[in-house]
């Protein structure tokens, strides 16, 4: 019997050694090119019981799925961007990369207190990016009711880290052995 979402897995291209040797880059641009695959991914990303007020997308590939999901569910869209890109007053959170660190930011007034927010990105690896986004949303007063990703790299532990922070995590497919 085919595993769940094998149709989507077949549309994701793996590019070895990008952006550096040893990384298996999971390329979702090939999924986006397929109208039915893209629509199915967005449809299945919506966790059935959660009723978010807002979808929060992470810069940049997360925006693609987050925007489509927001339209699909009839919610607004909150952009979590790399620092320095948003024009209004922002709050920011640093997160560690393998070498160095990076910073995510959101508009401080982007959500009303207690807004129920569903976080969306294309992929979760170590979870550093998503955890920084969760910290930002909580600082802004949001209630993070879940996080949804097309791809999980379970060996890097990010989904478990998010769950340990009390976030409900929903992923469509896993690539083991990363
Ligand atoms: P992390 O913070 O380690 O969970 O990394 C997640 C972010 O990095 C996501 O925004 C992904 O788009 C990107 N990313 C990390 N690893 C990969 C990979 N192997 N293939 C594609 N994107 C990746």
Structure description:
The chain has 178 residues and is an alpha/beta fold. The chain has one domain: Rossmann fold. Helix content is 29%, strand content 33%. It is built from six helices and nine strands; from the N terminus they run H-E-E-H-H-E-H-E-E-E-E-H-E-H-E. It has helices at residues 6-9, 29-32, 35-45, 61-73, 128-139, 158-164; strands at residues 13-16, 24-27, 54-58, 76-82, 90-96, 101-107, 116-124, 143-152, 169-174. It has a seven-stranded mixed β-sheet with strand order 5-6-4-3-7-8-9, sandwiched between helices. Strands 1-2 form a two-stranded antiparallel ribbon. Helix 5 (128-139) links the parallel strand 7 and strand 8. Helix 3 crosses helix 4 (61-73). The mean pLDDT is 95. Adenosine monophosphate binds next to strand 2, strand 7 and helix 5. Residues 23-26, 58, 61, 121-130, 158 line the site of adenosine monophosphate.
């Amino acid at each position: 019997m085919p595993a769940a979402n094998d149709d989507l897995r077949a549309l994701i291209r793996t590019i070895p050694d990008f952006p550096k040797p040893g990384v298996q880059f999971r390329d979702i641009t090939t999924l986006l090119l397929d109208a039915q695959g893209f629509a199915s991914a967005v449809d299945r990303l919506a966790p059935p019981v959660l009723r978010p007020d807002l979808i929060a997308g992470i810069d940049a590939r997360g925006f693609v799925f987050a925007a489509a999901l927001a339209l699909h569910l009839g919610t607004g869209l909150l952009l979590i961007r790399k620092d320095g890109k948003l024009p209004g007053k922002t709050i920011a959170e640093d997160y560690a990369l393998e070498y160095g660190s990076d910073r995510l930011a959101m508009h401080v007034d982007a959500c009303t207190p207690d807004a129920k927010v569903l976080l969306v990105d294309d992929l979760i690896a170590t979870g550093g990016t998503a955890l920084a986004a969760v910290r930002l949303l909580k600082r802004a007063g949001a209630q993070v009711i879940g996080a949804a990703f097309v791809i999980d790299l379970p060996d890097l532990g990010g989904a478990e880290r998010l769950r340990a922070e009390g976030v409900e995590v929903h992923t469509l497919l896993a690539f083991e052995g990363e």
